[in-house]
Amino acid sequence: TGTSGTHQENLDFANGELFDIAGTKYTDVTGNGITADDTGLGGVTIFIDLDGSTDLSAGDETTVTAADGSWSFTNLDFSYAGKSVYEVLPNGYVQTVGQAGYAITGTSGADQTGLDFANFELFDISGTKYTDVDGDSVVDEGDTGLGGVVIFIDLDGNGLNDDGVSTVTEADGGWSFTNLDYSYAGKTVYEVVPDGYVQTLGEAGHVITGTSGTDQENLDFANF
């Protein structure tokens, strides 16, 4: 102001230091959270939810995970404080880590790392139900598919078809369960032996491995 004898004080300045946020997107191989056997998953969209909708909207800031699953947003300012970061869940996956997103603290110069997400890729299991023509417990020439037979996943481990997860074999004997998640790992698949038959293949059932994206085929049964 420069007026006679008038001192000026408290002519203060303040800065907010820009900050970064970062994390990794994983394939959760066994569906048990992030562990040493999990690997990075590239090509997945990560976004800062600016409008609070929890879904990707026009105007939200996005990035795509690198081949090793890493992602980051850099040089953010105080306006991002309190916003949340989410992933766009890829088709055919379920999310196992980061479902609630991560809130950005947004304090000056305070980077946030370890904002990790993990997904388990759904899988299928399938097989064929055969008529064992010669009763040799081996699927070989002459054996044919047997339709109309109930195949079930035994969820409670009692060996009975009482858990509501079943299918019926097609005319050619084929059967499948699709889009299963990690909760099926370790469960066993059985058949309901039709009246008038004895089982010659698959008596002990087939155990579901239940690893991310790993389909199981040729889980066959045969009856004489």
Describe this protein's structure:
This protein has 224 residues and is mostly beta strands. It has strands at 19-27, 39-40, 45-49, 61-64, 70-76, 84-87, 93-97, 102-103, 117-121, 123-131, 144-145, 150-154, 166-168, 174-180, 188-191, 199-201, 206-207, 221-223. The strands form four sheets. Strands 1, 2, 5, 7 and 9 form a five-stranded mixed sheet that branches. Strands 10, 11, 14, 16 and 18 form a five-stranded mixed sheet that branches. It starts with 18 loop residues before the first strand and ends with a strand.
- List low-pLDDT spans: none
**Gross morphology:** rod-shaped
Helical stretch count? 0
Distance between the termini: 105 Å
Largest sheet: 5 strands, mixed
Cα-atom radius of gyration: 28 Å
Strand content: 35-45%
- Number of beta-strand segments: 18
SSE run: EEEEEEEEEEEEEEEEEE
**Helix vs. strand class:** mainly beta
Q: Helical residue percent?
A: under 10%
Give the overall average pLDDT: 97
Secondary-structure blueprint of this entry?
Blueprint: E1 19-27, E2 39-40, E3 45-49, E4 61-64, E5 70-76, E6 84-87, E7 93-97, E8 102-103, E9 117-121, E10 123-131, E11 144-145, E12 150-154, E13 166-168, E14 174-180, E15 188-191, E16 199-201, E17 206-207, E18 221-223
Parallel strand pairs: 1-9, 10-18
Antiparallel strand pairs: 1-2, 1-5, 3-4, 3-6, 6-8, 7-9, 10-11, 10-14, 12-13, 12-15, 15-17, 16-18
